[in-house]
Amino acid sequence: MKAALLIDFGSTYTKLRAVDVDGASILGAGQGPSTVGTDITIGMRAALADLERHIGPLPSFAYRFACSSAAGGLRMVTVGLVRELTAEAARQAALGAGARLVGTFAYRLTAADVSRIEALAPDILLLAGGTDGGNSEVILHNAAALGGSRVACPIVLAGNRSAMDECRDRLAGRDVIVTDNVMPEFNVLDIEPARAAIRDVFIGRIVHAKGIDRAQAMFDRVLMPTPAAVMEGARLLADGCDGLAGLGSLLVVDPGGATTDVHSVASGEPREAGVIPQGLPEPRVKRTVEGDLGMRHNIAAIAETAGVGNIATESGLTESRVLELIDELNTDVGRVPASPEEEALDRALARAAVRLAVKRHAGTVQTIYTVSGPAIVQRGKDLTDVHVVIGTGGALAHSPDPAAILETALADAADPFSLRPRAPRLLLDREYILFACGLLAEVEPRQALALGLAHLTPLQKEIRDERTVRT
Amino acid sequence: MAHKTLVTGVIGSDTHIVGNRILSMALEKAGYKVVALGALTPAEEFVKAAVETAADAILVSSLYGQGELDCRGFRDLCVEAGLEDIMIYIGGNLVVGKQTWEEVERRFVAMGFDRAFPPGTRTDDVLRILAQDFAARAQNASEGPIARRPPP
User: Fold this and answer.
1) What integer pLDDT is reported at residue A329 of this predicted model?
2) CA distance A417 to A440
3) Is B84 touching A (CB cutoff 8 A)?
4) Of A151, A236, B14, B146, which one has the fewest beta carbons inside 10 Å?
5) A352-395, pLDDT tens digit by residue?
6) Is the residue at A227 inside a domain?
7) pLDDT per residue rounded down to tens, chain B (152 residues)
8) How far apart, in whole angstroms, are the C-alpha atoms of residue B142 and residue A104?
9) Is residue A231 in a domain?
């Protein structure tokens, strides 16, 4: 048997999955605390001991790969020129690399912006601006501003090609990595090279800086940040690999403790002829992160965004009781729901988080009236025909009724302008296998895909279109 | 000329793309780098594209008679974005009703457009005038500070 050990150094837990690669099955799981703050090996040892308790003596592992979101994750700042253009492209590249964005800046950096970046002390800064041969003045200004600052992190340069040499000069003495422009031509996105560069910096420098490599004897390599591993898993499950078909276009929703992440693997182009796409082209593999929709760390923000009244109605609690519970959970972020009241509240919060996060991720259509008649304009991705929606993360995996939560990702008749999935299959990542698929895909894509396909649980959803179906 | 970048597009809720596409093709053939935004382009998008690509001129088309409304404040948007000296042209069926071209042209120049072109303008004429205007600007620049356009 060829066994693999997949490790997620998370912010709260160190999670292990031992898998049988040839049999594409899970051998067992182990969990320990996250101890990056002190010594990462303590948590890792605890997790290995836990795994051993479940499956007996550990086999020798052919692969031991890790991903990490510990020590604050991969904290990044992005800088671009026009907010909707290169600044947005830079944001997309950083999110696609699995980063946690702590600051996004556009246009010329002011002295106040530079002090803010210094205070944020990101792990990596991505500097973009200008199409190739386009504006170079602003990126040069920003390079000089950063060159004269106390910002010490590695800087990935992905702006106007014509300005790269001079930017490098202005950043002399810094750790600078030059890669291709995130927007080489107006409205053309090319974020893969920047993503790859960010990942290289993560593996080469950040893993060490965060002390993750102290556990080096216990694994082979840290491959990527955890969100990137989930994204790679999603990409593999959607596209398949040679000899094994994938699931087709899909959406992954992860309502987590601090944020709600949404990944889509779908072209997102207009479904109907005559719909005019507007704005920046969308990456086929896209990740969005909702920083105000966290089930614990941002619990108050969810309630505020969704409306305390709505949360109360959904959970069947009174508004004052909702506020009381939120206060308690806000100070006790590690708490899992214990009473029926808390379960009801968590369900309502998760439903709100999934609904809002997917609504923000999906595109919209709008009818505008022209002299030659109405025209339909689309912004963002059309996800109405997405085949599969996958729910992952603790809030869904531990919920007694995950279908009720995941359902809120679907299109809503009351909101016809939002292009959310209409009739996808709902799958639950009950075993938290997505990250493991993404890591294993590096070496054994076919087996990684088989593993994912075998361990996603189908969820029954209400048949709501019943009345409109003619028999 | 090979290094000049131009932004083209049809402004407002106007879907008439054909003339603008012919113009864009002619400009490209003449050696310009053309950033073609196509139909239904809001004024702000012209300006954002021009900032990011460091464009030398913006060529706005308007065919449906609402050009005057759509173009109001266009020069101000450019100034706001730091493009005070960018050359801006407008052309097409700019107004509805019986109005003399001289009157229409005067109005659009007063709005801050460097030139306005009547319906039926040939691409050759646009190319010739564009080359002239760029040459004149280069001349001005070499002679000293750019002479500001006189107020209308």
Assistant:
1) 85
2) 39
3) no
4) B146
5) 999 999 999 999 999 888 777 788 989 999 999 999 999 998 88
6) no
7) 558 999 999 999 888 889 999 999 999 999 999 999 998 899 999 999 999 999 999 999 999 888 888 998 899 899 888 898 999 999 999 988 888 999 999 999 999 999 999 999 999 999 999 999 999 998 887 775 544 455 54
8) 39
9) no
Domain shared by A62 and A91, yes or no:
no
- Please indicate whether, in this complex, the C-beta atoms of B54 and A130 are within 8 angstroms of each other: yes
The residue segments making up the domain with residue A45 are: 3-71+210-219
Q: Do B52 and A133 touch (CB under 8 A)?
A: no
Most distant CA pair in chain B: distance in Å? 43
Q: Which two tokens stand for residue A319?
A: 């508004």
The predicted model gives A146-150 an average pLDDT of 96
Report the C-alpha gap between A226 and A239 in whole angstroms: 20
**Number of structural domains in chain A:** 3
Q: Is B150 part of a structural domain of the chain?
A: no
Q: Which two tokens stand for residue A227?
A: 């969100």
CATH number of the domain that A81 lies in? 3.40.50.2300
Contact B90, B67 (CB under 8 A): yes
**CATH of residue B118:** 3.40.50.280
The ipTM estimated for the assembled molecules is 0.75
Q: Where does A240-322 show beta strands of DSSP type E?
A: 250-255, 260-265, 276-278, 285-290
Would residue A229 count as lying in a domain? no
Q: Residue B12: which domain range?
A: 8-140
Is A310 strand, coil or helix? helix
Residue A49 shares a structural domain with residue A153: no
Q: How far is A452 from chain B (nearest CA, A)?
A: 42
Query: Between B16, B40, B52, which is nearest A186 by CB?
Result: B52
Which class for A357: exposed (0-12), middle (13-18), buried (19 or more C-beta within 10 A)? buried
Which of B34, B45, B52 is most worth mutating to test chain A (most A CB atoms within 10 A of its CB)?
Answer: B52
Place of tokens 């990456």: A283
H or E element that contains A66: strand A61-68
The two beta strands, B115-117 and B57-62, are unpaired
Distance from CA of B112 to the nearest CA of A (A): 23
Helix (H, G, I), strand (E, B) or coil at A3: strand
From A219, A250, A272, the end of a domain falls on A219
Asked whether residue A325 is domain-assigned, the answer is yes
A371 to B35: CB separation less than 8 angstroms, yes or no: no
- Closest by Cβ to B52, choosing from A86, A276, A372: A86
Q: State the total domains in chain B.
A: 1
Q: Is B33 on the interface with A (CB under 8 A)?
A: yes
The answer to whether the Cβ–Cβ distance between A375 and B13 falls below 8 Å is yes
For A105, the enclosing helix (H) or strand (E) is strand A100-105
Of A84, A137, A377, the CB nearest to B40: A377
- Residue B145 belongs to a domain: no
